[in-house]
């Protein structure tokens, strides 16, 4: 629906990414969305298809909608201290939270990336300890180091520290960052092995038939099998003394 591809990376890198994908035969329809029930586009076109794959970016867990709290594009409106206004003792971080980006003046919110989520998780834990000890909470501040987008093969676009490489140099930055973000040596070894096999095979392979007998839902990719109702959330949110 956006006017250009990858607006977070700027117009130049967005055009580079689009040119790379167009070379592979991918057609773009900018400023257009897909109807919720059919393959009819909002600009009036109907596309014949055998397999339809729809990606709509990052969204917060459906649990967020059950809280009755203020949201920003589906994410909990949080304070710089990662607390949720109106809910005493409730903290939010990562994809579930719209945290003011103080490094950019606080008018915008931090993007839902691992770069922010990892650091917000640490800041949230420190603020929980501070709350238990009666100490003041610290605001979350992090200057974004840039974004990386892997386009497959040797193609990528990235924007580290204000630079705008593309192609193989950007791919090296993207994959190097992903490796550093993995928590264990075992995980890094598995990922490097997978990259090596893909390079030798000449393409990327992903197994997607685990749900071939039924449509997938967002709940299939969540750790919980069901979600609490707003009443259940409020009951679980009450202090223990109040429940007694």
Ordered list of secondary-structure elements with their pairings:
Blueprint: H1 11-23, E1 71-72, E2 75-77, E3 97-98, H2 114-133, E4 148-150, E5 156-158, H3 168-181, H4 185-201, H5 230-237, H6 240-243
Parallel strand pairs: 2-3
Antiparallel strand pairs: 1-2, 4-5
Family: Belongs to the NADH dehydrogenase family.
InterPro entries: FAD/NAD-bd_sf, FAD/NAD-binding_dom, NDH-2
Domain FAD/NAD(P)-binding: 2-121
Count of spatially separate domains: 2
> Residue share in helices?
25-40%
Count of runs of 4 or more consecutive helical residues: 6
Topology pattern, helix = H, strand = E: HEEEHEEHHHH
The rough form would be described as globular
Number of strands: 5
Q: What class do helices, strands and sheet pairing give? A: mainly alpha
- Biggest sheet strand order reads 1-2-3
InterPro entries: FAD/NAD-bd_sf (IPR036188), FAD/NAD-binding_dom (IPR023753), NDH-2 (IPR045024)
Protein name: FAD/NAD(P)-binding domain-containing protein
Pfam families: Pyr_redox_2
Family: Belongs to the NADH dehydrogenase family.
Q: Can you walk me through this structure?
A:
With 244 residues, the protein is mostly helical. It has two domains: 107 residues, no CATH class; 85 residues, FAD/NAD(P)-binding domain, CATH 3.50.50.60. Helix content is 31%, strand content 5%. It contains six helices and five strands, in the order H-E-E-E-H-E-E-H-H-H-H. A three-stranded mixed β-sheet has the order 1-2-3, with no helix packed on it. A two-stranded antiparallel ribbon has the order 4-5. The mean pLDDT is 80. Pfam families: Pyr_redox_2. Keywords: FAD, Flavoprotein, NAD, Oxidoreductase.
